[in-house]
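User: Structure tokens for this complex, please. No commentary.
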Amino acid sequence: NAGVTQTPKFQVLKTGQSMTLQCAQDMNHEYMSWYRQDPGMGLRLIHYSVGAGITDQGEVPNGYNVSRSTTEDFPLRLLSAAPSQTSVYFCASSMDGVNTEAFFGQGTRLTVV
Amino acid sequence: GENVEQHPSTLSVQEGDSAVIKCTYSDSASNYFPWYKQELGKGPQLIIDIRSNVGEKKDQRIAVTLNKTAKHFSLHITETQPEDSAVYFCAASRRGRGADGLTFGKGTHLIIQP
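Assistant:
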């Protein structure tokens, strides 16, 4: 049982480059989300989805896009990377809004130079 | 929106002693309060959670207490062991929100001294 899988684990980008962080879950969870973790800041919500075809913004959405075409996958796109997006990114999923335990992936450490 | 404050930022205790981490929240509509443990290089992992209709919950050496009136909740770890060393995060969310609606505290680095 893989749970929540994130790829890649590490990435270095140049300012202005674009990339997609991948997230997949095999638990048939409806709710998925992306958080970023910065030193001394805890985890902050970027975007979330409560089901296929439905996405919404979290606390810090600027510079990021998401889509949810399937229940399993929730990719996060950086359209034009900036040094301020250097962070560790975590994807999480939960069954729904009643069974609310959130399962996190192992994270993607992104450095923008 | 919700705001979660967590204290202390660093906590060092002797092995075998107890550790207490405290959090306060601002949104009276929040009703789900999980605690996560994060080891170096890994994602957060749920260790215990409590809902607003319960005042205390225990799981072996770990317990969480909730005071809805004061809007604060605490994590208690007894008989600490070296493997308890990690960063601990509290969080809060509302009814109907799962992985999409967690507001986290800034974390507590727990150090267990041998």
